[in-house]
Specification:
Oligomer: single chain
Number of domains: 1
Helix content: 10-25%
Number of helices: 7
Distance between the termini: 94 Å
Strand order of the largest sheet: 1-5-4-3-2
Largest sheet: 5 strands, antiparallel
Number of strands: 28
Structural class: alpha+beta
CATH class: Mainly Beta
Length: 528
């Protein structure tokens, strides 16, 4: 019992301490409220004896107190009143309104930045940084696997080349594996664009390695890899940078680019700002060739391509699943555009068969690779020649000149379809393929888990290889670029010192064994 009494006594002490702390806090809050003018200070009470207090209490309980007589010179008492009734806006409300106004203004500014510009651009209108080019200085007179990736861990190397028994394959593996990084500058210093590179292409010239890169904010980077590093003087501390030109022809992501071999002085760029522009590489001007009728219409373009035998007709796909064809010579855009709705979901990539451009392949978010024939394509109910469905979405479908297709998919695979052996060159109008004929001939395991910060991996063929073995390149999440043949044999794994990010956007030159890779930091890796 004694222990319980002492414990209760300690509890009572703690309770009294809490009451005292609460009273002190209330007193402090009252003083702060009075100093801010929320209510008037109470008048001091007169000191009375205990008996007087009891008498006053008893008298108030018996009858109503007599009304107080107001003197003329006595100021009326200040009653407690809310800020709302007094017409005073609380500080938090003012701040909220200011924040709302600032947010709306920022949204308008950002919306204006992303709004498509249909003007005719000259170099001065587009130049962001780098050399200010003049005349024909841009192209020159001689130009007319599944799981977490481990950085720098090779999956293909010299030993794989040495144990190759096929002489032709071994010779090609040796040739491709001997490609070296451009030795004039380290990749970490070759910043082509301010933002993440989304698409790249080489100029078809075989005398000058000219690389173009488009980023997610509409910038176009250009670098001439035939330049040499200037010699450093004795009084110079810093090494000179490479000469790189950065333009801004679009307001949103440049999703695709193409330079037709028949018109090597013209670069066509497509963008999420819903436009296709033509850049004259000799005059360094940019002109809008296609855009929706009004700037309020949003039709992001996911890819463009041109037929090898017709440099005046351009084809494109959109993120809404449509496919369109347009004659650049036409003056009335709305009447000359032919459009098909091929998918209910995004078409991420497509390509024409170069030798027979009425055939084309699309890769879609609906997990399918579809093969189409333009000669018989209904607008009401378009039906493909055939299709193959993957476990997850298909990122890109690339045709080579022989009739073979390479696709990349989020199911961590590269699928190869050989339609050349199925006689695609002789197919008549209305030819159909069943599910068995549409199955891939080869499946290569390849890590395609790029996440949100790395550009989606897409295979890209060398369109005019200088041997009988067809080959394509694709980025590797271990910070390499992989090169494969058309039957799935790996030919090389390109890397080197100074590569600090994944060269996710990888492209081949049309005919030379030059490979370019673009990173999320806008930097270039170039093997020659």
């Amino acid at each position: 019992m004694r222990g319980q009494t002492e414990e209760l006594s300690e509890f009572e002490k703690q309770r009294l301490a809490n009451i005292a702390e609460r009273d002190a806090l209330l007193k402090k809050l009252t003083l702060e409220a009075q100093s801010s003018g929320l209510f008037a200070k109470s008048s001091p009470k007169t000191t009375t004896t205990t008996g007087a207090k009891k008498d006053a209490t008893s008298s108030r309980s018996k009858k109503k107190a007599a009304p107080r007589i107001k003197k003329e010179d006595e100021a009326p008492p200040v009653r407690r009143m809310s800020s709302r009734l007094r017409g005073i806006t609380a500080d938090s409300e003012v701040a909220k309104r200011k924040a709302d106004v600032a947010f709306e203004e920022a949204q308008n500014v950002e919306r204006a930045k992303r709004m498509r510009k249909s003007d005719f651009f000259t170099l001065d209108n587009m130049l962001v940084s780098g050399q200010k080019l003049s005349g024909d200085a841009l192209i020159g007179i001689d130009v007319v696997t599944k799981g977490v990736a481990k950085p720098y861990e090779r999956t293909f190397g010299d030993e794989d080349v040495k144990k190759t028994t096929d002489k032709e394959l071994k010779a090609l593996r040796e040739e491709m594996s001997n490609l070296q990084l451009w030795d004039q500058w380290e990749p970490n210093s070759l910043k082509m664009t301010p933002e993440r590179i989304y698409t790249m292409t080489f100029h078809p010239s075989e005398t000058k390695p000219l690389v173009f890169a488009g980023d997610k904010m509409g910038h176009l980077g250009i670098v001439d890899a035939s330049q040499k590093r200037p010699e450093i003087g004795e009084d110079e501390d810093e090494e000179p940078d490479a000469s790189i030109t950065t333009l801004k022809p679009h307001t949103r992501t440049i999703s695709s680019m193409v330079i037709p071999p028949q018109k090597p002085t013209h670069l066509y760029t497509a963008s999420y700002d819903s436009s296709i522009r033509e850049m004259d590489l000799e005059k360094t001007t940019s002109e809008e060739k296609y855009a929706p009728e009004t700037r309020s219409m949003d039709e992001p373009i996911s890819g463009i391509d041109m037929a090898s035998d017709d440099p005046n007709c351009i084809y494109w796909t959109t993120l809404s699943g449509s496919f369109s064809r347009y004659d650049l010579r036409s003056s009335k855009k709305s009447n000359s555009i032919t459009e098909w709705q091929l998918s209910e979901k995004k078409i991420g990539g497509f390509s024409l068969l170069p030798s027979h451009p009425h055939f084309f392949a699309t890769a879609s978010l609906d997990r399918t690779m579809r093969l189409w024939d333009l000669r018989k394509l209904s607008h009401e109910n378009p039906e493909p020649v055939g299709y193959h469905e993957s476990r997850l979405s298909v990122s890109h479908a690339a045709f080579n000149t022989q009739g073979q297709i390479a696709t990349s998919s989020y199911d961590d695979s590269i699928k190869l379809y050989d339609f050349a052996n199925k006689g695609i060159a002789s197919w008549e109008i209305g030819h159909k393929l069943d599910d068995k004929e549409m199955k891939p001939d080869t499946v290569v395991r390849h890590n395609c888990q790029t996440g949100r910060w790395v550009t989606i991996l897409r295979p890209q063929w060398q369109q005019n290889p200088q041997s009988s073995i067809q080959r394509f390149c694709i980025g590797n999440m271990n910070r390499f670029v992989d090169i494969y043949s058309s039957n799935g044999d790996q030919l090389a794994q390109l890397g080197g010192e100074g590569i600090t990010a994944v060269p996710a956007v990888a492209v081949f030159h049309r005919s030379k064994n030059w490979v370019a890779g673009g990173t999320a930091s806008g930097k270039l890796c170039l093997w020659m």
